[in-house]
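Lecture notes, unit on protein representations.

Consider one protein chain, 101 amino acids long.
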Amino acid sequence: EDGQEYAQVIRMLGNGRLEAQCIDGKKRLCHIRGKMRKKVWVAQGDIVLLGLREYQDEKADVIMKYTADEARVLKQYGELPEHIRINDTDVMFEGEDKENQ
């Protein structure tokens, strides 16, 4: 939908926040909604749906977390690009070099 974007979690920042790489190529600071906070555990490498903020492009809110099976289905339907790896804790996008190694 308009105002929503798929993303992959790059790293957890604590206090209900995380950094995610969106499908549109931008890195955004994201906040996990209170409704999801204690019920759905988000980890590095997970595919999430973000609600974009009209007034802050660099920030977003996590609306939903997809399971690995759901993410594979999204990839088959062409919603997610081919270069995104599902079920990887080492998040890396095609064309990027590994950092800190």
